[in-house]
């Protein structure tokens, strides 16, 4: 190994700022919908964001520092795992009904990630209903859906690299993905929202961006 | 070119990096007594066996390894919740470093840093927030600069609005 070869990696290491939540081994995939989701957020002055995945420090910094968001971290994957572990999965829909303390129509954006893929239909319906409730008119919801039969028994943390790239970091899951949802199932599930963008990526992930119609009155007060 | 090799050696460390909790024993003996004396003066430890219920105010950096319930205010100083620390309190400080468990809202005028295995259940208000991989957090994060109006950490300063972005036509 030449001297330059030995120097180069070291120099790179020292140049890269420490980013504890980004690991070199995790694959990076392009995202088409994230940029549109971000655009919808930046239209607001101090957007409120609801993240349904596990906390990712660099994502919090990204949304908090760069976009000025107030971020609610509500790790529903952890709730799902806990219900599985304790054998009360049938109680998950009722739990989700009371899970979100946010006021109706108070959230500007929701990062649902691929959470729905791991849920049974009743829980998915209750979750979709609650998310529709808390989303403000014209607010956006970003969700991912697998397009291939379920195999993996791992959840994925989506780490934002930039507005067109996501790092996929898998971690231990309580269950595998449930049978895939067809597009029409997804549309029915989020019947209070409108699909504005849908992308099928090369990694067989469907990215769907929903918007809450502006003219619908917010539910209940 | 040869000097670059020297430059990348990890021999020298930044001098002023804020060290995590380093549970400095009260009686530190070492080759530089004046240094340890200075640390004794600047950092106060609440040990593992200590339980405090009520209001905790101070103007020194503080490391908590014990249990505290109530309110903690260190407006101009660094609060470190050590790995053994268990806090059920509203926390106001300049900087907060969490290696243990915090249940309650945390307001910092500078930074909140949740380290690996640290846990926060509550809302965070701070201009800078760092959450390590492996940390647990549930709540909200508000990184509005200087904190919101009425925040005890910076009560006198008005809340600057987010910089409006100029969008080209």
TrEMBL record, chain A:
Record SUPFAM superfamilies: S-adenosyl-L-methionine-dependent methyltransferases
Keyword Methyltransferase: yes
GO BP annotations, alphabetical order: methylation
Residue segments, region Disordered: 1-23
KW Transferase (keyword) present: yes
Molecular functions per Gene Ontology: methyltransferase activity
Keywords from the named record: Methyltransferase, Transferase
InterPro entries: SAM-dependent_MTases_sf
Protein name: Class I SAM-dependent methyltransferase
Species of origin: Eiseniibacteriota bacterium
